[in-house]
Design a protein that fits this description.
The structure holds two protein chains of two kinds.
Chain A: H1 2-6, E1 14-24, E2 30-41, E3 46-50, H2 57-64, E4 72-77, E5 80-81, H3 87-94, E6 97-100, H4 114-124, H5 131-143, H6 160-173, E7 178-182, H7 190-207, E8 210-215, H8 218-224, E9 227-232, E10 235-241, H9 242-247, H10 252-260, E11 310-311, E12 317-318
Chain B: H1 14-19, H2 22-39, H3 41-44, H4 76-111, H5 113-128, H6 131-142, H7 146-173, H8 176-184, H9 188-196, H10 201-225, H11 236-243, H12 252-279
Helix pairs in contact in B: 2-4, 2-12, 4-5, 4-7, 4-10, 5-7, 6-7, 7-10, 8-9, 10-11, 10-12, 11-12
The chains are: A alpha/beta, B mainly alpha.
Chain lengths: ~325, ~290
Amino acid sequence: MSALAKSVEAKPLLSVRGLTKHFPARNGRIVHAVEDVSFDVQRGSTVGLVGESGSGKTTAGRALLRLVEPTGGKALFDGVDLFSLSSRDMRAYRQKLQIVFQDPFSSLNPRMRVAAIIGEALNARGFPRGKKRAERVGELLTLVGLSPDHASRYPHEFSGGQRQRIGIARALAVEPQFIVADEPVSALDVSVQAQVLNLFGDLQKKLGLTLLFIAHDLSVVEYLCDEVVVMYLGRVMERGPSRLVYAAPRHPYTKALLATAPVPDPTRRRSHIPLHGDIPSPIDPPSGCVFRTRCPEAIAACAEIVPPVEPIGGGHHVACIRHNEKMPDWSLK
Amino acid sequence: MAAISVPLHSEPNILSRLIGRPTSAAGIAVLVIIVLAAILAPVIAPYAPSKLSIASRLHPSSLDHLFGTDDLGRDVFTRMLYAARTTLSVGFAVVVFSSIIGTLMGLVSGYFKRLDAPVSRLIDAMMAFPDILLAIALVAALGATAVNVVIALGIVYAPRLARVVRASTLVIRELPYVEAARALGVPTPIILVRHVLRNVTSPLLVQGTFIFANAILAEAGLSFLGVGISPDIPTWGTMIATGRQYMDQAPWVMMFPGAAIVVTVLSLQLVGDGLRDLLDPRLAKDI
């Protein structure tokens, strides 16, 4: 949590402002996948990007790396707007920002040996071929908790957790400053999830990495993240230091998410706040606050204006017109 | 995002699994015999392929002439062995040529969204012509030589391969390992070859086998219709075309090359079926 103290003055490594991504849909309609998302990521910190499936969190992460071209907004990385770079200039930046994918099976080319997969990354940053490269591959594998002997194997010879480690090694091979981890543990067995999460924690300490950790599960993020950004239907609902967001969630959506997260303490009870129905279609999002159709606190005014993401102190921001009103706190009983 | 099944795993022991299937094993055995016979034609053949013998015109099968002789007294068995060389080479060349064109078209239309519509329409347009008609038109325009037959049939079969490659490319393009390569800044041509092409080889192999069979039939058809390879060069097709005139007196002149085509095509289809079942069960049964 040391990043919290610094966060007030220090210049963030990545500053996202008004990130928007629209996809064309049939009949000339538009999918509003990500709408006006802003947040900062401090150097050396971990920011969790949380939301249900369909909240646009993955698209936001991919747009930051320009794996999908963003429709609008800015992403200042060390002061340079990634979105304004030509695709040629972006190639030079690609190695500073890497990504670890959710699905450990389709994220590794089944026809390439581990040495070739990591070697491709080394190649991308101009690492010379030869004996040194083999050594470097071995070092990277050791770094992620595998053995250098694994280099000569094919991906299908590994378990999901091991494959995820290979994916991490590939990302680390270019010595990035910033890694987007796109739900890197949600496809893994529960017993393996903790190991991979610990690996991220260790690597961050060892290498001074900055992480954007995308997850649909607040409990995973709580363990790892200094700050949390909660997204719903492409928009930011609430963001701030994890401590504040977890202890005193201000947005009804965050409260509902916290209420549905399993608590490993049988004596502590959280009442259940049902979120009715499914997330609405991003082709035709609700007017005003996008969450109002499922919000237990919605009033008529919620349909009128899009609530701005307002600071409420300590770096905590919330997008709810009723955040100042006394609402029943159903998150803890 | 649900786990996407990674298609087309390479199986190192694909050949041994293929041989484990009786029908495929039979197909492979026959093909091996035919290919060996073609390669060893000068050793096996009892006569020279164009040795005329007016005295022994249209002789039926005998110990001297296993499959009889043709209208110029040439040994049918000998000519079939040499014809196999041309027929198989043409078939193989068609597979290679159409694979190159088809793969290029498929990769381009599958990977680059902007080029998809124009290339796909071109593929549709090419497929709108009946195969043999398009081949006849092309050979007529280019001239009836072996090379032109290969070019014509290559163009005829390329769209099928293009479709198969495009369909696989569309899937693979979205897979995370391709995104990972893009995130690393790997240049697009290298991504296309290393990540996409390498993972479409299985359906290509399956389609290639079927196209081999079809190309042999089509080449025979073209020769039979007189727009194929010149009748001086023995192919199974030209042999049937000349034998046709003596069908009543000497049916063996066209029967044996015809049987060779049937057996070869059948074997290729059996191997293709086996490959498809092992590598890519999603492909339609008939091409």
